[in-house]
């Protein structure tokens, strides 16, 4: 899979409704995973969206999620730029450069869903997410 660059939107508990709306607008295939799907089944946040992805026939990719429990939702700054793919060397290289002099909120490391993932805000104030998936054989 080639690496992709796309927006990643954050929501205050209404990610499902928003992503379903964007699917109505743009068409395509919507995949939604909840916090309950990834190890928090009994919590009050188990039905909230941990990760959603809309892939459209026109080639758009839009990702989004509800803010993680305990984090503040700030309208107007509820986005990140997401780099994702399975070329680990390429994406780690991008991460090293983006995170140099940045504020790293999540170090690039293996996560509970099996991918390597990291988050930082670069020295220009732009929030980034990097997700490295295992190569598909």
Automatic annotation (TrEMBL):
The cross-references to Pfam families, in alphabetical order and at most eight, read: Glyoxalase
Q: Which domain of life is it from?
A: Bacteria
Q: Which organism is it from?
A: Streptomyces cadmiisoli
Write down what this protein is called: VOC family protein
In this protein, which residues make up the domain named Glyoxalase/fosfomycin resistance/dioxygenase? 4-130
């Amino acid at each position: 899979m080639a690496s992709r660059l796309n927006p990643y939107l954050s929501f205050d508990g209404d990610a499902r409704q928003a992503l379903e709306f964007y699917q109505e607008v743009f068409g395509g295939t919507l995949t939604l995973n909840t916090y309950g799907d990834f190890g928090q089944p009994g919590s009050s946040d188990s039905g909230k969206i941990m990760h959603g992805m809309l892939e459209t026939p026109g080639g758009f990719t839009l990702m989004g999620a509800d803010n993680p429990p305990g984090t503040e939702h700030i309208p107007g700054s509820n986005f990140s730029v997401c780099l994702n793919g399975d070329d680990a060397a390429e994406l780690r290289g991008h991460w090293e450069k983006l995170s140099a002099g940045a504020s790293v909120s999540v170090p690039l490391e293996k996560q509970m869903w099996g991918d390597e993932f990291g988050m930082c805000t670069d020295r220009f104030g732009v929030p980034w997410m990097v997700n490295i998936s295992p190569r598909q054989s």
